[in-house]
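Field log, afternoon session.

UNIT: design team B
ACTIVITY: writing a sequence onto a fixed backbone
BACKBONE:
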């Protein structure tokens, strides 16, 4: 997720904070400070910190359950409307997806139970000033209960929606199940959004938009993955491209971009070994910083994932996702560069009608 930066690493999972989180912090600090002065602002901010720890634990619940099925979670991003655990892949079997989807709400339920026992199950309005420790505990009880209830709504891509998708996938194809779950999610999001406009409740409106966009992008991802099923890197790689020498200038790459529509530029040393790959975005960044005379290698990505043409495309997607690399270098058995597998080449292939079986 863009606009976020790393704050910590927990059991191999990068924890990231979304930039909007700071706007939210400022808003909470100001609104609580107006009512209760510095003490009020501090109380509000500590509550936010504690709520985020609860959301983080919820996401870690998903991540740890996924780990039981051998699925890594490269990162968890915390945003003002909740967390997003980015799993390396979606569990293959529906029952595994159900367990992973329910692990987060289970954590929230345990937290709600714990805080509930501590405060005598007394609900506390979330807005307004927090009154001392007992008020804080009551707020945490209320928020975790709300989080639990909200996440269990059958609105894809929220946890309840994932359970719904997995249940549908027991009878239907994965793609069909996702399309139906996403359509239900988007329909409910529209109603939620309308209700939020009428109340008006800005946070609810944010959530509705998040659900609507999330459902759309996830069902698109599933369609791409289904289309790629059974295909190999060799089917999608670009084989005709110009190689640049390692000492090439950025101008050489921009010349290729403009005259040959090449978007990814491999840089080779004298022995024909690949030393880095410059992509379009890094080229533009380099041109802005160093101008056309700048060295291409300074802006190229050095550690590239090397793959063989026989690798399954679905695995190639996973590798690109995991490493954040814009391209994969395809090498033959002798280690010579034979092709490039880029986001563009993948989407070109998948836009064509499927050949054969
Ligand atoms: Zn969750």
């Amino acid at each position: 997720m863009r606009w976020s930066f790393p704050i910590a690493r927990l059991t191999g999972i990068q924890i990231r904070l979304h930039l909007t989180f700071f706007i939210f912090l400022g808003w909470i600090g100001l609104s609580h400070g107006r009512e209760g002065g510095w003490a009020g602002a501090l109380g509000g901010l500590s509550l936010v910190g504690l709520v985020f720890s609860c959301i983080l634990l919820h996401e870690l619940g998903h991540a740890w359950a996924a780990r039981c099925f051998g699925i890594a979670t490269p990162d968890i991003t915390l945003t003002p409307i909740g967390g997003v655990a980015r799993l390396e892949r979606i569990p293959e079997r529906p029952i595994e997806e159900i367990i992973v989807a329910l692990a987060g709400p289970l954590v929230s339920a345990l937290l709600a139970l714990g805080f509930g026992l501590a405060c005598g199950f007394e609900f506390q309005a979330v807005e307004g000033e927090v009154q001392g420790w007992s008020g804080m505990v009551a707020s945490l009880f209320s928020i975790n209960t709300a989080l639990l209830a909200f996440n269990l709504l059958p609105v894809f891509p929220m946890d309840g929606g994932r359970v719904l998708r997995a249940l549908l996938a027991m009878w239907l194809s994965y793609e069909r199940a996702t399309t139906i779950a996403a359509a239900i999610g988007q329909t409910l999001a529209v109603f939620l959004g309308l209700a939020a406009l009428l109340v008006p409740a800005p946070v609810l409106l944010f959530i509705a938009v998040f659900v609507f966009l999330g459902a759309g992008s996830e069902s698109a991802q599933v369609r791409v993955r289904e289309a790629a099923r059974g295909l190999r890197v060799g089917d999608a790689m670009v084989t005709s491209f110009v190689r640049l020498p390692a000492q090439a200038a950025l101008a050489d790459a921009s010349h290729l971009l403009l005259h040959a529509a090449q978007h990814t530029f491999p840089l080779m040393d004298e022995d024909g070994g690949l030393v880095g790959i410059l992509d379009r975005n890094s080229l533009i960044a380099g041109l802005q910083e160093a101008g056309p005379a700048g060295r291409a290698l300074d802006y190229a990505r050095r550690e590239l994932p090397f793959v063989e043409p026989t690798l399954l495309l679905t695995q190639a997607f996973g590798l690109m996702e995991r490493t954040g690399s814009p391209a994969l270098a395809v090498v033959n058995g002798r280690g010579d560069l034979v092709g490039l597998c880029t986001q563009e080449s993948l989407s070109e292939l998948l836009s064509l009608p499927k050949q054969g079986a």
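LOG NOTE: The mean pLDDT is 85.
NEXT ACTIVITY: expression trials, pending approval
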